[in-house]
Automatic annotation (TrEMBL):
Keywords: Hydrolase, Signal. GO terms for biological process: phospholipid catabolic process. It comes from Rhizodiscina lignyota. This is Acid phosphatase phoa. Pfam families: Phosphoesterase. InterPro entries: Alkaline_phosphatase_core_sf, Phosphoesterase. Residues 1-19 form the signal peptide. Gene3D superfamilies: Alkaline Phosphatase, subunit A. GO terms for molecular function: hydrolase activity, acting on ester bonds.
Length: 405
């Protein structure tokens, strides 16, 4: 009975979000694709270190295995290797979610999660300054598709999955203005050809290409095949920074350290072929974008995250070491803390730290307004974050209200 009620509630929620775009039958997808709108708008807002960023995420590979792949090693030589870049937890979906909002909200699963529209993401920050953005999800059947998955129509193999699409997880992005910017990789080539790529792009290869259902060898080859021709393409390289990284480390019992490579014509020549040992996390992806374009912050783990050094050198951001609480030796980023999307330890939505001030950046005014007067934030302005291993319920239950539904 309880589960029946839950199913109805979940169905009502998806209907409320958008009945049409979540359907996954071949006929429904064909019908929706016929009327789907694609947005190709672009902009030219200069940044302090780059004018465009392309973020490419691959799947489930430990650091050593990734750098051992000949094609990824080849790409690393073209740019800067970040040796101390960390994922936030396991499995995939919470990492993708974290990369744009500054938290994974306790998520410890790859479910059909819908994040409340009062949670802001980097997309809101970009739009507040007129900076164009777009996602390119390989083999997504049409722009703005909200379904759980889409398989290869000939072979039935896994192809596009919603859990690897950060923007679609957030209800704030499910509207007629934003859905058309959530496109597939075919549209990347269209936008490249017509010289209208957006300034912020997130690129997810399909389940074969990203290594999820295959191996790092396949992911490495796909990435080199995709990136190498772009290295000398003036339509792409326009003071562009490319980040190639992985959602999570494969081995759950070790620290979640993943390979990350920065390349592109925004990387100064003298840094090509170097390594950077600064502590970074997926939250650095947001902090770097905020620093580059002088954006406000989200008031979550983005505030204290280190900005990539190559960018920090131009923005004046100071790089910080993980020295505070909790001790680095005690965190592994391999287990989620409590939150609204945690299957076992479900508590309410965390409240942004609306008074956070760091490196001259303040929390976005609309976020301050939404959360004014609501007590109990757990975000600090340090680089130190938390994981669910030691700092779970005893730590969080003191400051967040129990989940009510
Ligand atoms: C990509 O999206 C476009 C626009 O919605 C659609 O027409 C096309 O069929 C899609 N391509 C692939 C390979 O799924
Ligand atoms: C994923 O994309 C690659 C091309 O990048 C293609 O060869 C492969 O067949 C696709 N995988 C599936 C399951 O469709
Ligand atoms: C996370 O890593 C630590 C240290 O290796 C280990 O003790 C713990 O069991 C791991 N957690 C999970 C969920 O694998
Ligand atoms: C945001 O939405 C969640 C889920 O609906 C709700 O619990 C929370 O109170 C909301 N917060 C604000 C500040 O509106
Ligand atoms: C920091 C860390 O422990 N990262 C690990 C990720 O996985 C590889 C392969 O198992 C380890 O060698 C790394 O040390």
């Amino acid at each position: 009975m309880v589960s029946f009620k839950f199913t109805l509630a979940a169905a009502a929620l998806s209907l409320a979000v958008n009945a049409q775009n979540t359907a996954t039958s071949t006929a429904d997808v064909a019908a929706a694709a016929a009327t789907a709108k694609t947005d190709h708008s672009t902009s030219r807002v200069c940044g302090k270190a780059f004018d465009r960023i392309a973020i490419i995420w691959l799947e489930n590979t430990d650091y050593d295995k990734a750098i051992g792949d000949p094609n990824l090693a080849w790409l690393a030589k073209k740019g800067i290797t970040l040796t101390q870049y960390h994922a936030t937890t396991h499995p995939s979906e919470p990492n993708y979610a974290a990369s744009i909002s500054g938290d994974y909200l306790g998520m410890d699963n790859d479910d059909f999660n819908f994040i409340d529209k009062n949670v802001s993401t980097v997309i809101d920050l970009l739009e507040s300054k007129g900076i164009s953005w777009g996602e390119y999800q390989e083999d997504m059947p049409y722009s703005g598709f909200e379904g759980f998955a889409w398989v290869n129509q000939k072979t039935g193999a896994n192809d596009y999955v919603r859990k690897h699409n950060p923007a679609i997880l957030y209800n704030a992005n499910v509207n007629p203005h934003r859905l058309p910017k959530i496109k597939n990789l075919t549209m990347f080539y269209e936008d490249l050809k017509h010289e209208r790529l957006p300034q912020w792009m997130f690129i997810t290869p399909n389940m074969t290409s990203d290594g999820h259902d295959t191996s790092v060898t396949v992911a490495g080859k796909w990435t080199r095949d995709f990136v190498e021709p772009l290295l000398n393409d003036r339509r792409f390289m326009q003071n562009t920074l490319v980040l190639i990284t992985f959602d999570e480390n494969e081995t759950y019992t070790i620290r979640n350290n993943v390979l990350a490579i920065l390349l592109g014509d925004a990387v100064p020549k003298h840094l090509v072929g170097t390594t950077d040992d600064t502590y970074y996390s997926h939250y650095s992806e947001i902090a770097t974008v905020e620093a580059n374009w002088g954006l406000p912050t989200l008031g979550r783990w983005d505030v204290g995250a280190n900005v990539f050094k190559v960018v920090a050198e131009k923005t004046g951001d100071k790089l910080r070491k993980w020295t505070g609480f909790p001790s680095f030796s005690k965190v592994f980023f391999n287990q989620s803390y409590a939150g609204p999307f945690n299957d076992e330890r479900r508590v309410g939505y965390p409240v942004p730290n609306i008074h956070a001030k760091h490196a001259g950046r303040f929390v976005a005014p609309w976020i301050q307004r939404t959360y004014r007067g609501i007590k109990g934030t757990y975000y600090t302005t340090g680089v130190e974050t938390r994981d669910g291993l030691k700092y779970s319920l005893p730590f969080l239950s003191k400051i967040i209200l129990p989940f009510r539904d």
